[in-house]
């Protein structure tokens, strides 16, 4: 199946913020079939600030990797292989690795990440450069 680039059509839309829909579409196309794992929230903190919160209970800081390249944010989790010697009667906690990709809109930058109480918080900000901002032209 071929892919079509509809981005020129979106440029003519007025009043619609595409960040959430782009991120959701990218996440729904999970690369390893785990499109629902781990669960996440996308929060609007202010007009130009966003936060992605992912439930990564059981993962340590050194088992998580966050990469931002061009307009793609990738979060990977690799569980250390310390399962040997354990004899589970029931294992309901998912301890599998994951890879989740988010397609970011133009001028979105990752400003930081924090792991607290099993939630990975990734902070994003929209930084539009001065050259791309609209400017008023005086009529002479």
Automatic annotation (TrEMBL):
Highest taxon of the lineage: Bacteria
Record keywords, A-Z: Stress response
Domain SHSP: 31-140
Pfam families assigned to the protein according to its UniProt record, in alphabetical order: HSP20 (PF00011)
CDD domains per UniProt: ACD_IbpA-B_like (cd06470)
Family of this protein: Belongs to the small heat shock protein (HSP20) family.
PANTHER family hit by this protein: PTHR47062, SMALL HEAT SHOCK PROTEIN IBPA
Protein name per Swiss-Prot or TrEMBL: Heat-shock protein
Species for this entry: Oceanimonas doudoroffii
């Amino acid at each position: 199946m071929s892919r079509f680039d509809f981005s020129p059509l979106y440029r003519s839309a007025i009043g619609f913020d595409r960040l959430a829909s782009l991120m959701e579409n990218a996440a729904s196309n999970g690369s390893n079939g785990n499109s629902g794992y781990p669960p996440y929230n996308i929060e609007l903190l202010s007009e130009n600030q966003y936060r992605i919160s992912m439930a990564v209970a059981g993962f340590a800081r050194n088992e998580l990797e966050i990469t931002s390249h061009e307009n793609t944010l990738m979060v990977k989790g690799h569980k250390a292989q310390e399962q040997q010697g354990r004899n589970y009667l029931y294992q309901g906690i998912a301890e599998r690795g994951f890879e989740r990709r988010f397609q970011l809109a133009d001028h979105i930058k990752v400003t930081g990440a924090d792991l607290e109480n099993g939630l990975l918080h990734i902070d994003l900000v929209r930084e539009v450069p001065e050259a791309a901002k609209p400017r008023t032209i005086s009529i002479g």
